């Protein structure tokens, strides 16, 4: 057997139940892996050695007593550092929250703990989840394990990398416009954004509340199902939580795609998308047809305005959400003396990085009297049009497919000075956030430079079961998962 850190969650679970190894062994394996990879990649901001060791011990004690709380019991999982963890520093990669220890756990964290998962630590992100490269972190960038001159994507770049290299077996990220799917694509792992409202946002540091959803990173589609099963479900502490039983996400994983109708999104197969990415996507679409699906062209005419609408709605919501960071209630407070107003202004100027300030300014402007209708109001109308486009498309196809990202991983620094170029990274992912629908990125191969290519499967609201059904077939056809593991661990190992 190879290194334990390279197992999927399901295989690790089989080994735990067969008594081949313990949760403490799994934790040791990921800790050893992190000791090698962190110096090159900087995926973690905090490693909670003590808490993780206790959780692993508790999981092993449960197994010994014959208690089984499901597929995540004893499995080391990493969390993006914008999810509150009681007593463990939670920074959202911002100076303004430097040293802040939340007094409570986010609901997803509570659910993971109740399921017996072992939380390894907190991972790096673009400050407050604003970005597509994990370069906007106040604590320094995370790098791509496939080529350390490249970005891992973002904003959940740290979480993506822990799963890619085996410094965790899976991880959670948040996806407001693509922040789980885009870094998953760029690092060669599976990343999914659930239907809005099926995973609680309680304890997730809010960026844009009408778009934010927490989702899992994993090394296989089946692992993604196992994680979503644990973190989803009604939570009275999130006012937007759907009060209904969650669908059977994994019910059709083995069913194949025969009889399904799959639409290739025309708008994401042309201008603005790298020709190599288009070729790889088209080849997979053909293979899905070969596997028995009916593959047709589908059009979402309003998506050409989706990016613009997102960059009004998300900043508008963030300008309101981030008003709470005022030097009084959380984290950093300026040393500069003055009136309360001056204290707040200095605290915010010192605490927020340039991208966060840009978003707050944009959002405040878009919401101001006299401009509200022209900007925010208009963007909301576009959001409705995008949602209507999806509804119309799902009137004749079961799922939609597209590239996850316009390009494979780009170089560190390449887009840092050009916000608009950076914003384009989320061209293909943002529409699902505007619509509130589920979508997943599955790795399908490597480009000529040896960098992973992601393939996106989108489904209607609460359509996770059919989304996972198609994703599982894509995974089988691509046969990529094991290569990703091998390649990433050799790239970074000495
Ligand atoms: N890259 C997008 C942005 O910067 C999406 C971020 C996210 O999904 N959190 O807003």
Overview of the molecule:
With 494 residues, this protein is α/β, with parallel strands linked by helices. The chain has a domain at 4-255 and 472-488: Amidase signature (AS) enzymes (Alpha-Beta Complex). Helix content is 40%, strand content 12%. The chain contains 16 helices and eleven strands. The protein has an eleven-stranded mixed sheet with strand order 1-3-2-4-6-5-10-11-9-7-8, sandwiched between helices. The chain starts with 8 loop residues before the first helix and ends with a helix.
Blueprint (SSEs and pairs):
Blueprint: H1 9-18, H2 23-41, E1 44-47, H3 49-64, E2 76-80, H4 107-114, E3 118-123, H5 157-165, E4 170-175, H6 181-187, E5 190-193, E6 213-218, H7 221-231, E7 261-265, H8 275-290, E8 294-298, H9 306-321, H10 340-351, H11 354-367, H12 373-393, E9 399-403, H13 419-423, H14 430-435, E10 439-446, E11 452-458, H15 464-478, H16 481-492
Helix pairs in contact: 9-11, 9-12
The structure holds glutamine (GLN).
Glutamine binds next to strand 4.
């Amino acid at each position: 057997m190879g290194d334990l850190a390279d197992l999927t969650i399901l295989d690790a679970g089989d080994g735990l139940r067969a008594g081949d190894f313990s949760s403490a062994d799994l934790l040791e394996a990921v800790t050893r892996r992190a000791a090698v990879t962190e110096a090159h990649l900087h995926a973690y901001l905090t490693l909670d050695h003590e808490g993780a060791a206790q959780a692993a011990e508790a999981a092993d004690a449960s197994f010994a007593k014959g208690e089984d709380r499901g597929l995540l019991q004893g499995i080391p999982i990493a969390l993006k550092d914008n999810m509150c963890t009681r007593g463990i520093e939670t920074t959202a990669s911002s100076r303004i929250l430097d040293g802040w220890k939340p007094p409570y756990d986010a609901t997803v964290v509570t659910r993971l703990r109740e399921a017996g998962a072992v939380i390894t630590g907190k991972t790096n992100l673009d400050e407050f989840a604003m970005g597509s490269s994990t370069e906007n972190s106040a604590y320094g960038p995370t790098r791509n394990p496939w080529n350390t001159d490249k970005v891992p994507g973002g904003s959940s770049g740290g979480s993506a990398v822990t799963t890619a290299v085996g410094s965790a077996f899976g991880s959670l990220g948040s996806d407001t416009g693509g922040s789980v799917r885009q870094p998953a694509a760029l690092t060669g792992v599976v990343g999914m954004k659930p239907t809005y409202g099926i995973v609680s946002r309680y304890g997730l540091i809010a960026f844009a509340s009408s778009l934010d959803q927490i989702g899992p990173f994993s090394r296989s589609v089946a692992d993604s199902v196992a994680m979503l099963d644990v973190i989803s479900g009604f939570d009275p502490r999130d006012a937007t939580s759907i009060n209904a039983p969650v669908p059977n996400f994994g019910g059709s994983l083995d069913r194949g795609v025969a009889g399904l109708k799959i639409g290739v999104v025309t708008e994401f197969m042309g201008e603005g998308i790298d020709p190599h990415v288009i070729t790889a996507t088209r080849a997979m679409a053909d293979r899905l047809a070969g596997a028995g699906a009916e593959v047709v062209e589908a059009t979402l005419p309003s998506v050409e305005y989706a990016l613009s609408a997102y960059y009004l709605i998300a900043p508008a919501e963030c300008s309101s959400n981030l008003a709470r960071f005022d030097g009084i209630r959380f984290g950093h407070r300026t040393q500069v003396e003055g009136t309360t107003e001056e204290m707040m202004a200095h605290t915010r100027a010192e605490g927020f990085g340039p991208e966060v300030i840009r978003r707050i300014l944009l959002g405040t402007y878009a919401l101001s009297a006299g401009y509200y209708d022209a900007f925010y109001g208009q963007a909301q109308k576009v959001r409705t049009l995008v949602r209507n486009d999806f509804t119309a498309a799902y009137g004749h196809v079961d799922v939609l497919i597209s590239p996850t990202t316009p390009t494979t991983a780009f170089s560190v620094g390449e887009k840092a000075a050009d916000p608009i170029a950076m914003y384009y990274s989320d061209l293909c992912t943002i529409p699902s956030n505007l619509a509130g629908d589920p979508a997943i990125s599955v790795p399908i191969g490597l480009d000529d430079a040896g960098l992973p290519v992601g393939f996106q499967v989108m489904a209607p609201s609460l359509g996770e079961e059919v989304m996972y059904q198609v994703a599982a077939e894509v995974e089988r056809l691509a046969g990529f998962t094991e290569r990703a593991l091998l390649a990433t661990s050799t790239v970074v190992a000495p």
